[in-house]
UniProtKB/TrEMBL annotation:
PROSITE patterns, sorted: NUDIX (PS51462)
Provenance organism: Nonomuraea typhae
GO molecular function term, any single one: hydrolase activity
Protein name: NUDIX hydrolase
Co-factor requirement: Mg(2+); Mn(2+)
SUPFAM superfamilies: Nudix (SSF55811)
InterPro entries assigned: NUDIX_hydrolase-like_dom_sf, NUDIX_hydrolase_dom, NUDT19
Nudix hydrolase domain residues: 23-224
Keyword Chloroplast: no
Superkingdom to which the source organism belongs: Bacteria
Keyword entries, A-Z: Hydrolase, Magnesium, Manganese, Metal-binding
Length: 264
């Protein structure tokens, strides 16, 4: 993947030791699936500072309050998630909470329910929308949101998928764990605005085809995720795939005078 000149210049400066990479923030991304093996994609607004115009999955940075022990929890524990993602228990708690919170903020889908074996059936209506907006502007913590509605986070509805770290040449960097989840029965995604100006359900192979034709822009983690999912014939098959979580940190290399980004 050839680098634009701005990033190529950063690569030269970092390679020469004249520029220090910025730290990567912990973040979580959720690949929502529905029957027919379609994935939910959002196009980030062209005004966004990071990944402008790219089609991405719901996700974002961990809010410090996502690590709150008050978050009602059902399913694999933070300790178990930490073992999966090679993270300490506090970080793992924040990652899972951020995954569920960001999915609700960016799609209206909530992976939580009144109990350990139930899930919310409908998240539409003015009350839900008010809470969603309060989460976005950080006026409401995720723990308080769940407590207010008598809900527990369903970590068992998440499947670990991958771990990507933004290249050191980027001015904004994220240490992102990717999860996969199925759209809960009765719930539906909706275009809720915010950081995205367009949303769509796509079959993984169709998303890749659009990217190959230059009709949409995919960042490497999104491209690779769609590529891997395109090998599956159904949602059940995707959930049954055994995933080894290996950290992927794409790096910039100079090849015959041109700076490129590689993932190997």
């Amino acid at each position: 993947m050839p680098l634009p000149e701005e990033l190529a210049e950063r690569a030269r400066e970092i390679d020469a030791g004249r520029l220090e990479p910025v730290p990567a923030k912990d973040a979580a991304t959720v690949v929502l699936l529905r029957e027919g093996l379609e994935v939910y994609l959002l196009r980030r607004k062209s005004t966004m500072a990071f990944a402008a115009g790219a089609y991405v999955f719901p996700g974002g940075s961990v809010d410090p309050r996502d690590t709150d022990h008050a978050v009602a929890w059902a399913g694999p524990s933070p300790k178990e998630w930490g073992e999966v993602f090679n993270a300490d228990e506090r970080t793992a708690r924040g990652l899972v909470c951020a995954a569920v919170r960001e999915t609700f903020e960016e799609s209206g889908v909530l992976l939580a329910g009144p109990g350990a074996d139930s899930v919310v059936e409908d998240t539409t209506g003015p009350g839900w929308e008010a809470d969603r907006l309060a989460l976005i502007d950080r006026g409401l913590s995720f723990a308080d949101f769940l407590d207010k509605r008598g809900l527990v986070l369903r970590s068992d509805l998440l499947k670990p998928w991958s771990h990507w770290i933004t290249p050191v040449i980027e001015p904004r960097r994220f240490d992102t764990r990717f999860f996969v989840a199925v759209l809960p029965p009765g719930q539906r995604t909706r275009d809720v605005g915010g950081e995205a100006d367009k949303v769509a359900w796509k079959r993984p192979a169709d998303g890749l085809d659009l990217a190959h034709r230059g009709e949409i822009f995919l960042m490497p983690p999104t491209y690779v995720t769609l590529r891997d999912l395109s090998a599956c014939d159904s949602v059940a098959q995707a959930l049954a795939v055994e995933r080894e979580i290996v950290t992927i940190l794409p790096r910039a290399v100079e090849i015959e005078g041109e700076w490129r980004l590689i993932t190997t």
